[in-house]
Amino acid sequence: MSYDRTDWHLESAIEAGQPEEHAFTHIGLFLAWLIRHDLHDPQLFPDYHIAAVKAGEMTGSDLVDDIDGKLTSAGMSPEGAAFTDASYEAYLDGYAEAFGDLPEYGVGDTPEAYETVERLLDRLYADWVAGGRQPPPSKAHTEPDAEDFGPVEQMILVPPGYSKEQVDLLLADAALPFPGVLNVMSPDSVPRSHVAAHLEALIPIDLSSPPLELESERADRWGSSLLTRALKLLGVSPKDAVVVHAIGGDGEGTVTVSLYAVPAVDAERLVSEFRSVIFRIPGSTWETRSIAGRRVEWAPGTEFTVAFWARDGMVIHMTGRPETIIPAIDRLP
User: Fold this and answer.
1) Which domain holds residue 83?
2) What is the number of domains present in the chain?
3) What would the mean pLDDT of 60-66 be, rounded to a whole number?
4) Domain shared by 307 and 241, yes or no
5) Between these two residues, 281 and 137, which has the higher pLDDT value?
6) C-beta separation of 42 from 53 below 8 A
C-alpha cells in the first residue's frame, strides 16, 4: 500500500516558492513518529539511522533516500501499516489545520514541527486503539487486477559480458506483474556523467582489477538527502559541491572510492558532518586511525570495511578489503 510520495508534492512546493525538501516534510514527520514508536520495519533502515532519529540527531526527512521518497506499508510494522491505513487521511487534515497559519508547504522538518505532529499522531493513535483498531470502512483490501493498469516498462541490469543465451536463461522464468515491456541493459549501457574531469583525474583507476570506472556529478543532482543536509549545515550550496564516484574490481574484491569536493570548508568540520553522511555497516562504529600520515575514520565490517578522511575542501571515502584500502590511502588526495 502506497500512502504518499514526495513527487506528488514537489511541483506544488516549488510553485509556492518553498524549498524542494518541504515537499517531503509532512511525510518525514510522520516517518519519524513511526520510528520513535517502533511502528516501522527495522529491516528497511540502517540501525544507526533508527538510533539517530530516536535520539533526535536525524529527522524523518533525512531518511528520504531510505524510502525512495515514498511512504508505503513496506517500511512499516503490521501495526504501523494498519494505523496508517486507517488514519493517514485524518493526519493530513490535522496537519493542515495545525500549520494553517503558515504558507502552503511552509513547514520545515524542525523539532518544533515534530512536537506538533507528535501530539496530533499520539491522539489519532490513541483514538484508533480505543476504537478497536478498525480499518477505514471505505477501503477494500484487495490485490489490484492486471486490467487496472496500463502497459508498463521495466528495466533490469545484467552483468557485463553476458551472452544473449545467458540472459535468456536468466529471464526464462521472469514475468512482468502487469502487461508491458522488459528492457535488458548492461551497466556499460547506462550513461555516466563527467562534470568534473579534473577531480576524476585525482583517483588512480588501477586501485582495483578490473580498473575503476568513474563518474562525477554536482551534489544537488546526486540524490542523497544526507549529503544535502550536511552541505547546508556547512553553509555550502549543493550546487557548488561535486561528487566523484568510482567502482571497480568484482565480488569480494570490489572497491569503491568517492570524492566530495566541498569548497571553503576546513577538514575538521568536514569530518564532523560526514560521519553522518558516509554509510557504514550496521553495528560498526567509527574509530580514528593514523594511516600513511593521515587521520582516517575507520569502520570495519565482516562484509567490507569503510574508511574516509578529509583535507580542507575535500572528503575521500573508500570501501573494500582492508588490504586494498590501506595502500590506496597513500595514493589518494
Assistant:
1) 2-130
2) 3
3) 90
4) yes
5) 281
6) no
Burial per residue of 299-331, b for 16 or more beta-carbon CB atoms within 10 angstroms, e otherwise: beeeebbbbbbbeeebbbbbbbeeebbbebbee
**Side chain identity, residue 133:** R
Domain boundary among 86, 101, 130: 130
CATH of the domain at 257: 3.40.1000
Based on DSSP, count helices (H) and strands (E) in the chain, helices before strands.
10, 11
Cis before 210 (ω within 30): yes
For the chain, the farthest-separated pair of C-alpha atoms sits apart, in whole angstroms, at 66
Alpha helices in 99-235 (DSSP H): 111-130, 164-170, 197-200, 225-233
* 3-state SS track over 315-329: EEEEEECHHHHHHHH
DSSP 198-243: HHHTTS-GGGSSSPPEEEEEEGGGT--HHHHHHHHHTT--GGG-EE
Determine if the pTM surpasses 0.70: no
Cell numbers at residue 15, please? 510553485
Instruction: Read off the C-alpha cell for 171.
Output: 529471464
Residues 184, 215, single domain; the answer is no
Are residues 105 and 170 located together in one domain of the fold? no
- Last residue of some domain: 189, 205, 240? 189
In terms of Cα–Cα distance, which of 53, 58, 56 is closest to 39? Answer: 53
121-180 pLDDT per residue, tens: 999 999 999 999 988 865 444 444 433 334 444 445 555 555 666 666 655 544 444 444
In whole angstroms, what is the distance from residue 288 CA to residue 92 CA?
Answer: 45
Would you say residue 106 has pLDDT above 60? yes
| Phi then psi dihedrals of residue 256, to 5 deg | -125, 145
Distance CA 284, CA 279 (A): 10
Q: Where are the beta strands (DSSP E) in the chain?
A: 2-5, 70-72, 152-157, 180-185, 213-218, 242-248, 255-261, 287-291, 294-299, 305-311, 314-320
Claim to verify: residue 219 and residue 290 sit in the same structural domain: yes
